[in-house]
Please model this.
Amino acid sequence: MRILHLDYDDLGHPWGGGQARRTFEINRRLAAEHGWEITVVTGRYPGAAAREVAVPRGRLRYERLGGGPFPLGVLSFLALLPLAARRVAHDLLVEDFTTPIGPALAPRWTRRPAIGSAQFLFAGEMGRKYHLPLAQVEARALRCYRWLIALTQAGAQHLQARAPQAEIAVIPQGLDRADLAPPEAIDGSGEHVLYLGRLDLHQKGLDVLLRAWSLLADGKRPPLVLAGEGRDRRRVEQLVVALGLGATVRLAGRVGGEAKRRLLHGARLVCLPSRYETFGIAAIEALAAGKPLVATSVPGLAEAAARGALLVPRDDAAALAAAVSRVWHDRELRVQLGREGRAAVEPLTWDAIAAQQAAFYRRVVGA
Model:
């Protein structure tokens, strides 16, 4: 099978996130295990170049489109997608929705089956942020999709209400087997609180997290490590200084692989204060490591962290501070949450997720 996969996000991008990770991990397995030829088209960013990913069978290559600072990079990528759809031979087209725009109408560019992968479902939030009618655009655009992928049941319900004509598969995010901590190693230990994710004040709620830290009593604030990069790094640094948190908050930059696992291993708990999420890959990585979560009870994130977490309302700094303090000081609770969370995410390996994706692809192409 020849697959053309359109995804603005990319692992090499300084702000690349869970969507890029999912695209890479699934496609690498599909090419290697089934011998499929897969072309991934991403946005262009400084240092980006076409590349081949080594796989034992099949073929996986990355191509780039557009370029320039935000929002020019996103807009030029979207404008050139129809050309890529005509230029690259394919039996199936897969389109990951592009933040902040959403669906890009891929079914209209090809005579082959086209699947929309809805890892981005924030048109309403993005519309309010940028003062654009993105929710209305999303609602109209979804009507042209016959097949869709959602990461959660909540996401599937959102899609079904707007695209009743579509067949929707729920296929969640995944994790590496190496991310799963041995159950006997879950002991509630750790020296810091960890945030994992993009440095984005609006979506990720980092302003709420830092306000919550300022509510904790002097001398009793746990060390907080913010691991990630993003456009808002400078604003986060300024907020840390303005709130007088420089002694307890450290920005670790972007981490991955063993560096990320070391940060997780050293964490006593993980805190994810997002205002909205489609899924939250950082949540299942934390739970896989046997670390308890304090997170906001927003759709997607709450579903991903249904076990192993204390959930608080979004935008509630006081509730967030209280939950962090409770988990930080209660080792028995940390062990309980850590073991429950680790057991809940054990089935979500990338091998299992790729198998579900392959089955859906085959059904769509055979339809």
In short: The chain has two domains: 2-174+349-366, 177-345. The radius of gyration is 20 Å.
